[in-house]
UniProtKB/TrEMBL annotation:
This is Threonine synthase. Belongs to the threonine synthase family. It catalyses: O-phospho-L-homoserine + H2O = L-threonine + phosphate. Keywords: Amino-acid biosynthesis, Lyase, Pyridoxal phosphate. It comes from the Bacteria. Pathway: Amino-acid biosynthesis. Residues 2-80 form the Threonine synthase N-terminal domain. The keyword Lyase applies. It comes from Salipiger mucosus DSM 16094. The keyword Cell division does not apply. The modification N6-(pyridoxal phosphate)lysine is found at K112.
Length: 463
């Protein structure tokens, strides 16, 4: 199994090499050369399996010879052992034909734990075997950062630096990143928004001298391993609703396009997904692009669903690669236009290819809050604002005979202010985090400046 870059100019890598590299050296993102498929019989055989067994069968073909079966199975078991629900990703029924896939039972209460807990295990195993050490730098709008810190804190072979936008994450998210005491954890509050954090991270990857000097690694969803781990819950959900003998649709609250891209991979593998609905908040560049073909960035407007306050949606590049017939030059040209001019136009053929798989919708701030209120009143379900964006858009895209699954991407207690504003209820943190507000915070303020960030990282890592 080999991985190739979406810009066509970087060498193909194994799963382990692609995982440890993060971004390709031509600036592109790694994708599998070919996507392995599962037959209807393979999918039927998932019925009744545990989440861990399903994860093994779905992911195994992508891993190649990077890990033995036994090691890979053990690492999956360790990754999910700390989840607060036996099913790992349970589903509840919101309304006839509409289900909520709860992805917030991991240690940091967001869907990011599904991938991050696993790649923490995979990194540790691979780095120990290779006798190597890496510097992980991550960009976060709140959830990736806390999940990465939880997964990598205290590991010998890793330093982890998380860039988050100062003043633009919820207090719970910030405290999850700033209160761990392990010396290898560095929370960095950047003066800017999430797109600035992500842009500086990509700049570091493209500064080869720095990249090689600190042995830079990335755990954002630019890392293929992140996407792969998220493919699994599409299978577990669809199988429990009758796949492969029944089609299922999914609505995915979307920012960086990683989670919904995982659904697209599940579909390419053979899972009978009817529709994949991209749900955005008021920062709706993806909805506008799928509607008009114009991908044009504008100012980021802070919202009640801050983790999706994103304009430069990194994984969109992966789906454009397919939509343009896997033409790396065409993708590189679009990305150059994005960098120099703030946008690009998707060709008619590529747009048609995208629309074969994706529908889209947006939720305004008022609609998001109204959905939280209505879900609580009618179903007793307390939604986080991101999940509420999904539920609102899903309701507009449901078809009578196909079950719709909306991904509930975070626990409402991560966003207590918005949830209380909408529903009058302030959701408490789970017991194990009850003292989060008493713990001491530790973070570094930094300007939105590449060389200042590189200096900060150099000074902090062991020489
Ligand atoms: C709670 C929550 N929901 C949804 C999203 C969107 O996921 P993605 O970036 O994979 O589209 C994010 C982060 O981006 C998130 O933290
Ligand atoms: N919402 C994310 C943004 C980064 O997304 P990623 O999936 O690419 O890591 C966050 O919470 O940080």
């Amino acid at each position: 199994m080999r991985y190739i870059s979406t810009r066509g100019q970087a060498p193909a890598l194994s799963f382990e090499e692609a995982m440890l590299s993060g971004l390709a050296r031509d600036g592109g993102l790694y994708v599998p050369e070919t996507v392995p498929t599962m037959s209807a019989e393979d999918i039927r055989a998932l019925h009744g399996l545990s989440y861990e067994e399903t994860a093994f069968r779905v992911m195994r073909p992508f891993v190649g010879d990077s890990f033995t079966d036994e090691t890979f199975g053990d690492l999956i078991a360790k990754a999910y052992a700390g989840f607060g629900h036996g099913a790992r990703a349970p589903m509840v029924q919101l309304a006839p034909g509409h289900f909520l896939l709860e992805l917030f039972h991991g240690p940091t209460l967001a869907f990011k734990d599904f991938a991050m807990q696993l790649i923490g295990q995979l990194f540790e195993e691979a780095l120990t075997r290779r006798g190597e050490r890496v510097t992980i730098v991550g960009a976060t709008s709140g959830d990736t950062g806390s999940a990465a810190i939880e997964a990598f804190k205290g590991l010998d072979a890793v330093d982890v630096f998380i860039l988050y936008p100062h003043g633009r994450v919820s207090e719970v998210q910030r405290r999850q990143m700033t209160t761990p005491t392990e010396a290898n954890v560095h929370a960095v509050a950047l003066d800017g928004h999430f797109d600035d954090c992500q842009a500086r991270l990509k700049d570091m990857f493209n500064d080869f001298a720095f990249r090689d000097e600190v042995r830079l690694a990335g755990v954002n969803s630019i890392n293929w391993a992140r996407v792969l781990a998220q493919v699994v819950y599409y299978f577990s959900a669809a199988v429990s609703l009758g796949a492969p003998d029944r089609k299922v649709s999914f609505t995915v609250p979307t920012g960086n396009f990683g989670d919904v891209f995982a659904g697209y991979i599940a579909k390419k593998m053979g899972l009978p997904i009817d529709r994949l609905v991209v749900a955005t908040n008021q920062n709706d560049i993806l909805h506008r692009c799928l509607t008009s073909g114009d991908y044009v960035t504008s100012e980021v407007h802070p919202s009640v669903s801050p983790s999706m306050d994103i304009q430069v949606s990194s994984n969109f590049e992966r789906v454009l690669f397919d939509a343009y017939g896997r033409d790396g030059n065409a993708v590189a040209q679009l990305m150059d236009e994005l960098k120099s001019g703030g946008g690009f136009h998707v060709s008619q053929g590529a747009l048609q290819a995208l629309r074969e798989h994706f529908e889209s919708g947006r939720a305004s701030e008022d609609e998001t809050l109204a959905t939280i209120k209505a879900a609580r009143a009618s179903m007793g379900e307390l939604l986080c604002p991101h999940s509420a964006v999904g539920v609102k858009v899903a309701d507009e895209h449901r078809a009578p005979d196909t079950p719709m699954v909306t991904l509930a991407t975070a626990h409402p207690a991560k966003f207590p202010d918005a949830v209380e504003q909408a529903s009058g209820i302030r959701p408490p943190l789970p017991e194990r985090m009850a003292d989060l507000f008493d713990r001491e915070e530790r973070m570094t303020r930094a300007p939105n400046d590449l060389s200042a960030l590189e200096t900060l990282i150099r000074e902090r890592i062991p020489q």
